[in-house]
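User: Before I run my own analysis I want an independent prediction to cross-check against. Here's the chain; please return only the structure tokens and, at the end, one sentence I can use as a sanity check.
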Amino acid sequence: MQPARSSHDVRITGFASYLPALMHDNTTLPPLDEPAAPDDLARIGVLRRGWAGDGEGIAEMAAIAARRALARARIAAADLDVIIVANWTQRRYLPEFAPTVKLLLGAGRAFAHELGCACAGFLYGLGTASEFLRNPRYRRALVVASEHTSRRARPGSRGTLILGDAAGAFVLERSGGERASGGRLIDYELACDGEHAGIMEISDEGWVHTRIAQRELCALAARSIAEVSGRLLARNHLTLADVTWVIPHSGTAGVQAAIVRVFALPPERILTNYASVGNVSSASIPVAVDHFVASGLVRPGDVVLSAAVGGGWYAAAALYTVAEVAGPGEARA
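Assistant: Structure tokens:
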């Protein structure tokens, strides 16, 4: 079943990602407080992850991913109206990163701002940008997520095996039919549950701290993703049978296993490149999309369901198709 078309479609005309130059495998990471056995490494499931270095700040990584996405969309940064930067791992009171991203891109006409929403930030950004594009004043938007997730793991902890750094971007354009190329943002759904606001926090030292058992966290994440995705599909008169691929926020191996169970889908229909990049938080979805389109697995016209949760407690989902690839988008596979 095909969802109804609106008079003004929001098109995804470009997407891209950036991974740091330094990609740690499990043998090059700094020593852990307690060495991980091979079985532990297999359960964690990450083979390598990027750690940002000099010249790879939040704004710099965002700008690289954005330039690649703009090149694929074949539009200039000067033509952007809206820039939304998702980031929580390096949040600052002042200055924020969005104005610097705008400056680095040379997007003189655009207004720029950033949002948090933890790991759900990219999908919250897509939803926010699509609403701006309903206004005839705005036609082109950039949504970019850039995270130093590795810096929220306590040094020596097993979190360093999981968390990585990356950036990913989508270019969105409003189309009234005159430009129907590119993928299509079909619809999105956002949710927030304040009752679970305190289950995750950043310690005074800067490390992620979870206040519930990991099994409970995985179950809550899967339940939240199922609920927000179910509402999105129902509103569009679709079921999971109409979805080609599910590309969720990577989270952890436990969250992924819980998502497979709650969706009751064959595991091969749920795509993640978690093993090769780690958990890169809000950048996970655009980085994974870039990866799987480049590999040829996800093709133009495939219907993708992406969903994410974030400490806060946030949940979000989006339905979309992707544009045909034109030019390089990701630094490395």
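Sanity check: The mean pLDDT is 93.
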